[in-house]
Amino acid sequence: MSDKHVLLGMGQEELKTLLKSLGQPAFRAGQVLAWLNKGVPFEEMTNLPKSLRESLRETCVDLPMSIHQTFPSRKDDTVKFLFSCLDGNIIEGVLMHYHYGYSLCISTQVGCKMGCAFCASTLSGCVRSLTAAEMLSQVLLANRFLGEKGHVGHIVLMGSGEPLDNYDNVVAFLRMVNAEDGLNISLRNISLSTCGLVPQMERLSCEGLPVTLSISLHAPNDQIRRQIMPIANTYAIDELMDAVRAYVRKTGRRVVFEYALIDQLNSRPEHARELARLVSGLQCHVNLIPLNHVDEHSLRPASPESVQLFLKTLEEKHVSATIRREMGSDIGGACGQLRRSVLEGKA
Ligand code: SAH
pTM of the full predicted structure? Predict the structure, then answer.
């Protein structure tokens, strides 16, 4: 690890002290922070004296993270990133190109402790939570990677980790990335995906941060949900749905339910009908995900025919639903798979 000061993530006071040691007045801290939050490299911080830019370059690094490796898909425009943290931890992110622009899927923790039976991120538990600056760095590094081609306009908190298990840092990140003098990304363009931590969902609905909430539901009842998601033993679906309704009421936002279709478990037409009853009357969309097979798990994806039948059954019940388009399937599709293959020396 280098002994240089890491600037993004420093508080205003700490930065003032550092700049003072470089012979600079206090007001420079605000200028430097504004540039940092936009991801502008030291050389291009044009309202700073040239000598200061040079001493910053010699004594400091701007971001607490760097791009470790990139994996461009050969099938589409998707790029998977492995980012390395200063402490050597590796996390992953995915950049996707849609007709409306670039969307980045970021990680919120190194690993995850939620233990979902189909997910690769959780296989080795949670090493630690990421800081707000580390989350913002993923966006800034993706922008640097894109260069002239464009910039990240949408963010999904759907990489490794449970965002609401890292509540304070995630909320701080949302405020940073939405700041007018920062990247100024609209909260409407940000989705936060949760396995359903009910108290934190209730807290989030009162933050004045109306992001799109995605709920990883994956089952129409507690009996099935408990077989694949340990969190279902803590919060019953009824409690979860109450928190979802409160979120819709308080934020006015439509929510999204994620539903991975698993063979023999949750993908029969009667499950679709049960799901339709559960979400009826709610301002929501159901995202059907053909399960990504993870080597370490025995669960199998539902057949394409049962995925279609599931969708049709929901539509007959007037539930808005789509099947998620697979992107970058050649580069370690499922959540946490790429990082895992790197940790195991297979990438
Ligand atoms: N912890 C959060 C966000 C990370 S997971 C959450 O649970 O929502 C992002 C999404 O990918 C979740 O909906 C998760 O359930 C889903 N997912 C994880 N592994 C998957 C797999 N093998 N196939 C399909 N979806 C998967």
Answer: 0.94
